[in-house]
Structure formats: structure tokens, C-alpha cells
Specification:
Layout (H helix, E strand, L loop, with lengths): L30 H15 L3 E6 L17 H18 L3 E4 L9 H11 L3 E8 L11 E4 L10 H18 L11 E3 L10 H5 L4 E8 L3 H7 L2 H20 L4 E4 L4 E2 L6 E6 L4 E10 L2 E2 L5 E6 L2 E6 L8 E11 L8 E7 L6
Parallel strand pairs: 1-2, 1-3, 3-6, 4-5, 8-15
Antiparallel strand pairs: 4-6, 7-9, 9-13, 10-11, 10-14, 12-13, 14-15
Helix pairs in contact: 1-7, 2-7, 4-7
Length: 346
């Protein structure tokens, strides 16, 4: 009886991690379609002054991916530079706290933004969860909480628009700590918040695109095209925010007055119209009642007339106003001083 021996050769293939998965934006099908999106939003973005702050850098390079594939400071800069390019192409005027791997203090970042005269401040970061390799999400941060003196709704408005389009572009969720992915910086530093948001002199947000402490996300962050997608999400969110309009407030009445209960006049410009229920007016931190406020609607603007229900003593007084348009966007911080003077002979 013959015996047959069959030699079976087994080839062992070393296991390897799956290829990072991401989806190109649908409007990137061709270079022309991508340009058409930028051209569409240029009518809303053109002329706006945007300050972009790539976080960390220079001597601050300690935040490194879980597999050491990326350094946060470098990814922040790459995303910021792509965002700059998109905004510039759309006609925005862009300033940056750094354009290379240099050290910039928090104080200098705020100072540069203030001196630039920028309208909006955007700080670009990527997040970390030491000891937790599973967590990742996108989050966009604003300063303070409603009811706190440091809170202004325009910051949260910008955060909402950026967060929505960023999370969609990256195909990830927001944090479970928030229904819409926007977060108050008081969650990290109660009653203080982030330095750059607390001290910004213009509406400001801080974006944490995703986590470099998650291996899957770190792999994606190491891919240049993915960094472009991150910037694209931020760009489209900001562009849609500007498309929805920002009410512009002007004090058109005199600022030197002689009566203790003067009637002051504001002009609010916005193409979508003024949400009359949103009007909040304070003089010296005292709220003007709704029944002391009147409005007149004109095409593309409204006139607001109001008279305090209390006497104003001679001297300087501070006026604070917040309104929203019919798209839900709040006006930028508006504060003006006016003066009550005694009439000659009084």
C-alpha cells in the first residue's frame, strides 16, 4: 500500500491595521465643483476679517498621538493653513497667530488678534483623553454660560454653525455633554474658561476637531487630505453662519443729552429682519422694560426707540444692546457710552 504525503504550505501574513476611513465631501467631485462652493459663499464671506489661531507650536510640542504618528501642534497648523486658503479664496481678510512652528504665548495670541482688528477669532486644536483610547468626537467651544457676565450669544452662534459642518465633514458625533456639540469653556475651567476666549475682544470660538489619543483618529489626522477636510468643515460652517447674517447695531441719537429720561435711537441693519422679541437693552446694567421699547421696520433695517423707566443722573452712562435676526443670529457685542449733562442755569 502506497502512502501519499501532501505538503501543505501555510503562508502567514502579518496582521495590519485597517486603512483609515474617511469620506470626501460631496462637493469635491471635481476641482471646479469645489471652487463653485467657495465662489457661492464668497458673497457672504468677502470683506470679513478672520483671525485664525493654530494652537500650541514652537516649544509647546508635548501633545503627541498615541502611536506617535502626529504632533498636535503640527496638525493644528496644517488645518489652520488650509482654512486660511479657503477663506482667502472666498474674499475674507485673514490674520494668523503663526504660520510656522513657532512659540506664541497666549497673551500674544490675544494681543495680535486685537491689533489686527479682526471681526471673528477661531482657535484650532485637537483633543486628548489620556488613559482612554476609545473616545473621540468633535467639539466647538465658546466662553462662559448664559447668565454669566462673560457670556455673549454671538460666540455660541458661531460655535453652533462650525460644529455642525465640522462633525458632518469628519463623519463623527459631538460630545454627549452637549446636545449640539458646542461646549462652554467653563466645563474645563469653571468661572474662568480658556484664556484666549476669555480675553478675546471680538466674538471667538475654539475648535477641537477630534482626538489624537484615539488610534483610528490619529491615523486619519496623519493624512493630508483629511486635514483639508477638517478645514473644509470649519470653512463651510463659518460661511453658513455669515450667510445667515449678523445684525449690525448703530446708535444714531445724540450721545450728549440734557434730560434724565432721554429717548435714544438705534438702527439695526439686517436683510432677514429683526426678531423684535429678542431685543435686550440695558443702561448701567439695568434692563429697559419691553413696554418702553418701540420699533419701526424699514427695508433691510429697523429703528429702535427706547426710554429708560428710571432717572439718569448727570455723568457717563453705559448702554448694552443685544438683538437677533429672524435667522436666529445674535448681534456682536455692542456697548456705547453716552452722557447726561446739566443744562446751563440748573
Amino acid at each position: 500500500m502506497k502512502k501519499f504525503f501532501i505538503l501543505i504550505t501555510i503562508i502567514f501574513i502579518p496582521s495590519c491595521a485597517p486603512k483609515p476611513y474617511y469620506v470626501k465631501p460631496s462637493d469635491w467631485k471635481t476641482p471646479e465643483s469645489k471652487d463653485s462652493v467657495i465662489n457661492f459663499y464668497s458673497r457672504f464671506v468677502k470683506g470679513w476679517k478672520i483671525f485664525i489661531d493654530p494652537g500650541h507650536g514652537g516649544q509647546d510640542r508635548k501633545n503627541i498621538g498615541i502611536k506617535k504618528r502626529v504632533v498636535e501642534a503640527d496638525v493644528n497648523l496644517k488645518v489652520a493653513l488650509y482654512l486660511r486658503d479657503y477663506l482667502t479664496k472666498a474674499g475674507a481678510i485673514v490674520f494668523m497667530s503663526r504660520e510656522k512652528d513657532t512659540t506664541v504665548s497666549l497673551q500674544d495670541r490675544v494681543k495680535m488678534a486685537t491689533e489686527s482688528g479682526a471681526d471673528i477669532f477661531i482657535s484650532i486644536h485637537h483633543n486628548a483623553m489620556p488613559g482612554d483610547e476609545t473616545t473621540f468626537y468633535a467639539s466647538t467651544w465658546y466662553h462662559a454660560v448664559e447668565g454669566d457676565p462673560g457670556f455673549h450669544p454671538s460666540n455660541k452662534d458661531i460655535a453652533r454653525y462650525i460644529q455642525r459642518d465640522l462633525a458632518y465633514a469628519l463623519r463623527i458625533s459631538g460630545s454627549l455633554a452637549s446636545f449640539d456639540g458646542t461646549m462652554s469653556d467653563y466645563l474645563v475651567y469653571p468661572k474662568q474658561g480658556f484664556y484666549v476666549l476669555r480675553n478675546a475682544t471680538m466674538p471667538a470660538v475654539l475648535v477641537e476637531c477630534t482626538f489624537f489619543t484615539n488610534e483610528h483618529e490619529e491615523r486619519r489626522l496623519s493624512i493630508d487630505e483629511f486635514n483639508q477636510i477638517e478645514a473644509w468643515g470649519i470653512f463651510k460652517g463659518l460661511a453658513k453662519y455669515l450667510q445667515a447674517g449678523v445684525p449690525k447695531i448703530e446708535l444714531i441719537s445724540d450721545t450728549i443729552l440734557t434730560t434724565q429720561k432721554p429717548t435714544l435711537i438705534l438702527k439695526v441693519s439686517d436683510k432677514s429682519g429683526l426678531d423684535k422679541q429678542s431685543i435686550q437693552i440695558k443702561i448701567d446694567s439695568l434692563t429697559i422694560p419691553k413696554d418702553h421699547i418701540a420699533t419701526i421696520d424699514e427695508r433691510n433695517f429697523s429703528i429702535i426707540l427706547f426710554t429708560p423707566n428710571f432717572n439718569l443722573n448727570p455723568g457717563v452712562h453705559t448702554l448694552d444692546v443685544i438683538v437677533r435676526n429672524k435667522n436666529g443670529n445674535s448681534s456682536f457685542p455692542f456697548r456705547r457710552n453716552f452722557y447726561i449733562v446739566k443744562q446751563t442755569g440748573e
